[in-house]
Design goal:
two-stranded antiparallel ribbon; 29 helices; 657 residues; mainly alpha
């Protein structure tokens, strides 16, 4: 690393730290110096500077350096430059741990928050390692595993919040990541928990250097690789859990900092640890400067996590674009099923669909007893809009998934992975929050605009690597993470519509009106029929761009047209029900297992299976914890997420053999 880079990073950190202390401050430099020496007068500006601005800067430096260090440890242990606490699912696990603690034992929040966050993080990491395998940490599969765990834990978290709303409000700000301080108490609590970082800086460099020789080479030189992985991961997760407990989720930081450290010349393991820590502190102080400036001019509190995402997401996308071997380690094998669709299999699907519909129509609770009987006129008016919307939405999301997977040539591609669902979510939440329009009054056009905007951004960013699957998925994950932070910012505003937004985010059919159900049924049917009419074009596109071009297909316009069709299917569902995840992955996969291998058969059978899956999830959500209810989107995320994890586990075994 050149001296210019070293001095530049240190000088930049000092300048941004100094500028942070001056933003919207009326105090002279002499007064500030006296405050630093401990002389604080009974003046509001001085008290605010001494007990709000200074501890906030100290917290930014401590948290930024800690998360940057953790990111470097994770990337050096796994030798994967696209891993971090957020992509490994540990942040989602920490959030779930804190939610469970606040609900199950509110009195324990004073002393056991860090332990709860640590437990959730370890659970998430263990699940990710179980899915991908400890020897498969360098490819796309572990990123997909982390995404699956994040979505699964996120669905469970939203369900717990909706069922226990009295505990949720104080966690909205935490979810957006906020460094605001009211005294030095939080800093004094946090810094002892981060002392373990000094141990990592002093002693982890040598074993991490040996690990660069490969696991077999490191073992040959006497290094216990498993023990190193466990010790450093546990140390890192402890620091991460303590930081998350105090300031919430700060995304992108642990991912970007080590990559920038290597970019400016950190070649040895030790230097990467040191410079990742410094760059993490620099980025977080920069982000806090940005958050404070926006808050000053907009008169609205902007959380530091949002500013970090605004800086970190473009950096991450830039780093993805710089990857040279984009297609390395991206192979995926699906579970084997029938070679062709049989009449028996088709009969089974139709029989299951009819059974699920009849279950939804005739089953209900009467005086807290589960009974089967004809619905009354009143209950039928409540049942049929939910039934129609669930069937339509499930079919639409499944067809959208087939189109995505055929175009991207990856059986794990979906609107969830590529950010199309997130774009619709942001548009709906943004309009609801900033224009005072209730979620139920927003039309599908708003969601479609959001999905299309996300799709256009994705296409523009993907042109450089010719729409290759791995970088396209990673770019979609980055966009989704940015949008998720923006949504968290909307939730922390604490308006009366927050719980309406949360119910919508859970994917509920509960408040769908008859007119909305009919509209969704018509739109979904038209778009599905349009998709079926394009089956020949999709077949040629799924054979590869070269083959399609040789058959006279205009490849790029066809690619964009089919992606827009998938986005329209996704947006129509998201607008009325909210984000429905995993159906677009699971339903096409189940259709392939049944033998639906041609495009036309896979589209048709996937639509039926998607309808079955979402309607069953909706029925189960109404039944399992009666008289309370779980949203259909939450239930399908739990069911589909579990199945998605099973797919990844099966793929791991196929690859290992």
């Amino acid at each position: 690393m050149s001296n210019r880079s070293k001095y530049g990073a240190v000088i930049a950190l000092c300048l941004f730290a100094f500028s942070f202390l001056q933003i919207d401050s009326n105090l002279s430099l002499m007064t500030q110096w006296q405050i630093l020496q401990g002389h604080v007068e009974q003046d509001f500006d001085q008290i605010d500077w001494a007990f709000s601005r200074l501890p906030r800067l100290a917290m930014a430096l401590l948290v930024g350096s800690s998360i940057g260090l953790i990111g470097s440890v994770i990337q050096q242990l796994t030798r994967n430059p696209l891993l971090s606490p957020s992509t490994l699912g540990t942040s989602g696990g920490a959030w779930l741990g804190l939610i469970v603690l606040s609900i199950a034992w509110p009195e324990g929040q004073t002393h056991y928050q860090a332990m709860a966050a640590m437990t959730g993080s370890i659970l998430a990491l263990s699940l990710v390692l179980l899915i991908s395998g400890i020897h498969q940490l360098t490819g796309l599969s572990i990123v997909l595993s982390g995404m699956a765990v994040n979505l699964l834990f996120g669905a469970i978290t939203i369900a717990l919040i909706l069922l226990n709303q009295e505990y949720a409000q104080n966690l909205f700000i935490w979810g957006a990541g906020d460094l605001s301080q009211n005294g030095w108490d939080k800093f004094h609590w946090l810094w002892p928990h981060c002392l373990i970082g000094i141990f990592i800086l002093l002693y982890a460099g040598k074993p991490l250097t040996l690990l660069r020789l490969g696991q077999s080479g490191a073992k040959g030189r006497g290094l216990n690789v498993t023990a190193l992985f466990l010790v450093l991961m546990l140390c890192g997760l402890w620091m991460l859990s303590a930081a998350i407990t105090m300031v919430g989720i700060i995304g992108f930081l642990g991912l970007v900092s080590p990559n920038l450290a290597r970019l400016i010349g950190a070649r040895t393991a030790t230097s990467e640890l040191y410079w990742s820590s410094l760059i993490g502190a620099l980025i977080l102080v920069m982000a806090d400067n940005l958050a404070l400036l926006i808050s000053t001019f907009s008169f609205d509190i902007v959380p530091t996590g949002l500013a970090t995402a605004l800086l970190g997401a473009p950096m991450l996308i830039w780093l993805i674009q710089r990857q040279k071997n984009q297609e390395a380690n991206t192979s995926f094998q699906t579970m084997r099923g029938q070679s062709q669709l049989s009449r028996k299999g088709l009969f089974f699907v139709f029989a299951l669909l009819i059974t699920i519909i009849l279950l939804g129509v005739f089953s209900h609770f009467k005086i807290n007893q589960f009974v089967f009987q004809l619905p009354s006129e009143f209950s039928w008016e409540l049942k049929w809009p939910r039934l129609l919307s669930a069937l339509s939405a499930g079919a639409a999301m499944a067809v959208s998934g087939v189109i995505m997977q055929r175009l991207i040539h990856n059986p794990l591609a979906s609107p969830d992975l590529l950010g199309l669902s997130a774009g619709a979510v942001l548009a709906m939440v943004g309009f609801s929050t900033y224009f005072g329009i209730r979620m139920g009054q927003l039309g599908p056009l708003i969601a479609f605009i959001g999905s299309m905007a996300a799709l256009i951004i994705l296409l523009l960013l993907s042109r450089r690597f010719r729409f290759a699957a791995a970088p396209m998925i990673l770019t979609g994950v980055a966009l989704s993470a940015l949008i998720e932070t923006l949504v968290q910012f909307s939730l922390m505003k604490g308006t009366d519509e927050v719980y309406d937004i949360l119910r919508w985010l859970a994917g509920s059919t509960y408040r769908v009106t008859p007119d909305q159900a009919i509209l969704l049924g018509i739109v979904s049917s038209v778009l599905i029929l349009l998709s079926l009419s394009f089956h020949k074009l999709l077949t040629l596109m799924s054979m590869g761009k070269v083959t399609a071009a040789a058959r006279g297909v205009a490849v790029q316009p066809s690619f964009i047209l089919l992606l827009m069709l998938a986005a329209a299917l996704c947006a129509s569902v998201t607008a009325l029900l909210g984000p429905i995840v995993f159906i677009s992955i699971v339903a096409p996969h189940l259709a392939s297992l049944l033998g639906a291998r041609t495009v036309l058969s896979q589209l048709s059978v996937s639509a039926l299976l998607g309808a079955i899956l979402l309607q069953f999830s909706d029925w189960l959500g109404q039944t399992i914890i009666h008289p309370n209810q779980l949203a259909a989107g939450t239930m399908v995320a739990i069911i589909g997420g579990a199945y998605f994890i099973l797919i990844l586990l099966k793929n791991r075994r196929n690859v290992s053999h």
